[in-house]
Amino acid sequence: MKPITALANEATPSLPQGMEEAFRRIDALELSDRIRQWKEARSRAPFTVSVERERLALASWKETEGEDIEIRRAKLFKKIAEGSPISILPFDLIVGRVSSGLLDAVTQSDVCGDYIPGVWEDKDNLDLTLSVKEGLPREDREVLREAAQYFHPRSAGAHVADTWRGIVGTWPEDCEEARLKDPWLSAGFFPAVVTAPQWGKVMAMGLRDFIKRAKAKIEWFIETEQKEIDRLHFWQASVMTCEAAIAYAHRYAKLAREMAEQEQSAIRKDELLEIARTCEWVPENPARTFQEALQCVHFIYVCKSLEQPTYSPVIGRADQFLWPYFKKDWESGNLTLERAADLLWGVIGYWGSHTFVANADFRENHQVNFMLNILNVGGFDKDGNDASNLLSYLILQLVGLLQLSAPSVGMQWHRGTPRWLMDKAIATNVITKGGFPLFENSEHITAYFVGEGVPIEEARDWYTEGCVTPVVSNRVDHYGAEGVGSFNVACLLDITLHNGIAPVTGKKLGIETGDPRNFQSFEELYDAFKKQHKFFVNRVLWLSAIARKENEKYIRFPFLSTVMADGCMEFGEDVMTPNPTYHTFLITDRALVDTADSLLAIKKLVFDEKKLAMAELLDALDSNFQGKRGEEIRQMCLAVPKFGNGIDEADLMVREVGRFSAEVISSYDNSPYPRFKISREGLSWHYFGGLGVGALPDGRKAKEPLNDGSMSPMRGMDKSGPTAVIRSVLKANFNESSCSCLNQKFSETAVRSPESLAKLTVLTETFLRQGGQHIQYNLVDAAELQDAKLHPDKHQDLLVRVGGFSAYFVQLSPEIQDDVINRSEQAL
Length: 828
Prior knowledge:
Strand order of the largest sheet: 6-7-8-19-18
């Protein structure tokens, strides 16, 4: 790898000629009075649960008993769109919320069944997330209980669980208990629920055009006497849901006009009338202005969230699909940068304040109070040119000013990324402290998708979903669906060391591969691990294929399907009906570094150097390194070379484990659908997954968090500086994955000077130019983190990067707080 002081040969352009003044004006922007009013209201607003969506869903499902499921789901959406409470608050320019309160959450028993933790307990509070409890009136709790009781036996998750139980008994549930795989079926992950709709097409065409297309399909079906009745039902449901979304927007238009009649302020009166005119036009018709474009996108976002509330659609490449509207208004003089910021804040602020009620594993896995979402800046256009623009810069400025934990921001880096965008991205990182934006290598991701058969024009137009997972537009992604999001490779090693038994639960989850005490070589141990890995992966993916067929019998999403992918409209198929031509499949193999470090420790201590007998090591692990001898053995384990220090034997072991794992996943026969792709992302999964893993030979104690991200070294064990870390990452070379998540931590004081900022820019660019896939930063002093843990009231807005997402530090579990604190603090 080149020294970090040497940039690659390609020059990065300076500010575009004639645009210097616009960039300076953006840098000078501050929070407007309107945004400050919203931030103050947000800080005072209570987290609340609105049961109206659940009440409406329950009534609709009882009214439509016996009808086709696609039509029933369309009618359910229509009833919710017609009856959900709405409001326009004093600071709103862009309108639309899932309920009337500023921080309202709505529930979805109609999708997930009996999924709300604590709903059956007789207590005053309901746990919304790990850190938020909110009071719930008894009558509202009774609505949630009735919905849970009614919908659960009818839910897709319950039916899939019963089907699995009839085939392999309680094995899937036992795996979930052991954190060997996730998500649980009750999490409500289904195809496309977190991916981005066709924002550009919806804005350019309007929902009226989608209705026109669906009606043409209905006419064709009747005139040509087609027989596949499910297709007819889909197109009918598409018409019904689009009409409902238009009517939902018109409800806001009517409310805005009513409020304008009562408004005393002439300025606010004009704003309300403009809101009314906007809501009367979009999303029904094509957007004509920047405000209409933003309002159109936001209505689609909210309507999808009303149909399936726990997961919001990803925003994706906002600086690309909004750019034509911004550019037209700005160049014509109809839009100032200050006005654009106020409008853009309206949607970013909502996306960063969207609350939800999660099931148990989602809470541990994500550890966020606000919806996990991400928007991208930069990257390629479809012809391979740099796509960065003034809106990219404005988004970064606004994110730095707002200081929100969400949405996350991902910068799509490539060799032609201009220096002005890199400098702004690094400066935004320093301001926010908690990883805004993260950096992903668009060259690697584009090449990855091309290698998977995606045309290069489509591959360049990728965007990020979840934390750091790249996906391609106009396709239905199954990542997390069918109970398959990720699996715990470290747990598989733990099971191998116990001959098929998961030691944390004591249940047999693997196959018998022999007592490791009797193994005569490292190769024998590694072969046993490989057998466990292959058994588990093939069984899980087989069960997911069964769930894929079962799910579509019990749940549909006609509105999401209409706006998600052209294939749904063309074939007359809901996203729940898999189609090999436009459905994609992803999985994450987690804790590869933990596994590799542990394998190397066994290899060196037991077989190469013979410092320990296998029985002695296993006894120490089973006792969680208790006693004097246990601690001595732990220190021996910690002293074995670790990934992240540029040491070949450690780095190449990670390379080997990653290569093998990917080979097993890719070789699974998923026909007739595309093979499973691999995404190695972050979340706070390392805490969730660690709860299912006993003590490991790398020196980690039982149930402690595993390594964060997917390429981050063991916390505190990367002792040779940041260049050694990135050398290790490049050597491990996870090119079989579309992404790999690397966290790095520097103190805030280390990046205060212009020279240190320049070094951080050079470090980031050099890593990516050498083939690094992803990097993100925590730029916060250890003393501040320690004080925030002791005095949370003083640090309510402190942001940290956890795995692949950021969160308010004080809202994290103590274990994750300690995990962030104990990560190595690098120096430049």
